[in-house]
Amino acid sequence: MKTIVFFLFFSVSLSYAQQVQFERDSTLTTKDTLFFSIKNNMLSPMFFIMNPKENIPKEIQYQRKTLLKPSEKQTHFVKVPRNMLEHDSALVDFNKYFSFKVGYGDPNTAKHTDDYLYLLPYKKKRKLIQGNFGRFSHDHIRSFHAFDFGTKIGDTIYAAREGKVVMTKESSKKYGRTRKFANFANYIIIQHDDGTTAAYYHLKFEGVLIEKGDLVKRGQAIGISGMTGFTTTPHLHFVVHTTSEEKGNISVPIQFEGYVGKKFRKGKKYKRRK
After folding, report:
1. Domains, the chain
2. Are 168 and 162 in contact (CB under 8 A)?
3. Beta strand 20-24 with 33-40: parallel, antiparallel or unpaired?
4. Nearest alpha-carbon partner for 236 in 144, 130, 116, 83
5. For residue 141, what are the contacts with CB-CB under 8 A and spacing of at least 6?
6. How far apart are CA 191 and CA 45, in angstroms?
7. pLDDT tens digits, 214-263
8. CA 62 – CA 67 distance, rounded (Å)
9. CA–CA separation, 167 and 208 (whole Å)
10. What per-residue confidence (pLDDT) applies to 6?
11. Which of 36, 172, 202, 213 could form a disulfide with 184 if both were Cys (CB 3.0 to 4.6 A apart)?
């Protein structure tokens, strides 16, 4: 029997391909029908929505949306008749029939604490190379309120806020100037007590200093800055997300301690004031 490969690349963000996993349920699959399960690889809740396109065959059965608990796996998520496979293909590509919406965090409970003052996630004076609503890559609802700090390779990165480490990646050495390299960034995602998450991107190969599941303190060393993923220069991409079923992960405006009410400007240098 051929192995059935399920290709799922999210239009929202390529990085989600590592955080949500689809696989064939070998114990349920029969000679006539393929069953697929879905698994949340994060230690954070995650919602997943499959929106059918007009050309979807009625024979495909699926669960339109779900909220996955941390590390939860759900079976019977998609059911496909084998006779739908064209030319006895070993590939099933559901992008042809669905668009996807996915986000980490529980949209029912995540609500950002707007008066929280974040620490700058580094100590030395560093230049802001792209700020909020930057035209180069901060042009999406997930990145409108992101900051790109021009750290040097080897700089220590610190937790801007206390929380639980829900996802990490440190296996990549690749980087490039186009979005096709986005999935190669090393990163840390930390969930806060209000359900929001902070993402620290472009870390060094094997540059994660903590482990998934750790509870980290504000100001704790968590990683080493590098140059991986979609980038033209070494830097730290830092952003805080909340989530909603309608829009997925949404970047939120934040304030840094020592800079309350001040707008960070591209080209200016900033350092922690504590």
Report:
1. 5-104 (2.60.40), 117-270 (2.70.70.10)
2. no
3. antiparallel
4. 130
5. 247, 248, 250, 251
6. 10
7. 999 999 999 999 999 989 899 999 999 999 888 889 999 999 999 999 99
8. 15
9. 11
10. 39
11. 172
* Best CA proximity match to 264, nearest among 120, 116, 115: 120
Helix (H, G, I), strand (E, B) or coil at 179: helix
Query: Are 118 and 255 in contact, with CB atoms under 8 Å apart?
Result: yes
What single DSSP character describes residue 220? -
In 3-state terms, what secondary structure has residue 267? coil
Q: Are 75 and 127 in contact (CB under 8 A)?
A: no
Per the listing, tokens 């996993």 go with 21
Neighbouring C-alpha atoms within 13 Å toward the C-beta of 195? 17
The Cα 241–Cα 189 span in angstroms is 10
d(CA 150, CA 274): 20
Q: Which amino acid is at 61?
A: Q
51 — alpha (psi -120 to 50), left (phi > 0) or beta? beta
- When computed from its CA atoms, the radius of gyration of the chain, rounded to whole angstroms, is 20
Residue 150: its pLDDT value, please? 96
List, in order, residues 6 or more apart from 203 with CB less than 8 Å away.
157, 170, 185, 186, 187, 188, 223, 224, 225, 226, 228, 236
Q: Report the C-alpha gap between 215 and 206 in whole angstroms.
A: 20
